[in-house]
Amino acid sequence: MSVRYAFTLVELVIAIVVAAVISVPAGWIIANQFEGVLFARDAAVAQNLARAEQERLSALNNFFAADLALTCPAGSPVTTTIPSYLGTNYTLTRRRECQSGDCCNSATSSQGIKRITVQVTRNGAAAILTTLITYWTKHVTFGS
Description:
It contains one helix and four strands; from the N terminus they run αββββ.
């Protein structure tokens, strides 16, 4: 006569509970990892788009270029929002403001500093993925 060994119901239930206790946290970790990968991709793309815009503005090499213009004579801040920037699923916001001096007067005796802020978000989202700030100067004399 041969003896058969089998699992009891209690052993099976314990094995299922142990498997569930192990697999639920593992599934949560994998889901968070996937979410982190997607955010990292968004942040990298946003950073590259902001850098591209900063490089484009730098290539203008003109303190009074249209993309860098302020509302004169007050020199009030100007914000431009570009949805689907460069055909992507990201919105770029560019804010220009006069940090000091007279940013509207083109005379060489007039000094000015503009602050240019570039922010990138996903289209339709409120969370800012990246912010870059740069300063533009005109006719600034350093030293005495």
